[in-house]
Specification:
The protein has 374 residues and is an alpha/beta fold. The protein has two domains: 59 residues, DNA polymerase, domain 1; 271 residues, TIM Barrel (Alpha-Beta Barrel). Strand 13, helix 9 and strand 14 form a beta-alpha-beta unit. The longest helix is centred in the middle third of the chain and has 15 residues. The protein is elongated and about 70 Å long.
Amino acid sequence: MEASVQSTADTKDVPLTSADEGRVNLIGLSRAELEAVITGFGLPAFRARQIWHWIYHRGATVFDDMTTLAKPARTLLSERCVLSRPSVVSEQLSEDRTRKWLLRVPGGGDVETVYIPEEDRGALCISSQVGCALTCTFCHTGTMALVRNLSAADIVGQMLVARDTYGEWPSPRGGRLLSNIVMMGMGEPLLNYDNVAKALGIIMDNEGISISKRRITLSTAGYVPNMARCGEELGVNLAVSLHAVTDELRDEIVPLNKKFPIKELLAACRAYPGANNARRITFEYVMLKGINDSAADAKELVRLIEGIPAKVNLIPFNAWPGVAYECSDDATIARFSDIVNRAGYSAPVRVPRGRDILAACGQLKSASERKQRV
């Protein structure tokens, strides 16, 4: 089965969704902000809770659908506010059912969002920035310039588009296809912490989308200053993109290491609030042939993470056009995994998903890359 493009459009022909004409975009507002906007229009405060329910539980896209509001209130909201979701520029479906959207977000710019399905559930990989400033050498997104941070509306909007696609409205209480969220898309989430935290707060709210913090994983390349905040304020699962066991190599392939070297990063992991054997920190480790995949590397990895409630995700390198790296062979990956496993740490090998549509880990890069900051 070949990968299919389900809908496409030239990016210049897709209208930018934004709160134009001075209208307020209600998506992405906190509960307090939404109430302030609503009462500012002369509506009673309880209407904000109703609107929240319509946006995040029922998936309303127009105010006229909000039938628990009187018609004059709906008219007023239509005149003063918008419900701006990202626009779908293109949508691709992989042969393994992985789905990738290229989205034009309300705040401006384009990002990629990926859904990775399992048998009766799945994870939505959400972006936090347009582009990325970290320049990790094995990551396609790292070849882009950073354009801007995404707003809470831009981040939440990715979830709403996915829910629209899979028809998960109203929010299901039991089984759901969109069961997990991974902040592992384009960008470094901890460099956009405030907007990411606000968006995840909306997504976790139990009167709306209602995804548990235990089903949300935030991935960082190691921006140490915001790691403790993430654990204290959000309590979500933490994944750390380690990828090397020496500062010399990590400085080269994850340049953020020059600011926050391995010793400092691992100290932050040891102190991460809420980490225990039931909620282990995940160390992500991309397998690069002849670079970081030796038995000595595996043994050093075990030594480094000793005492941290952890597991290791081994990621076969996913190639992209122009990259110089190759993926370690299966035997080498198996040997590496076995060494880590025998030391008492789970070390599963991630099955690559969506490679045929460049949707796998490390392959995301907007086709409509913007060079100019907005």
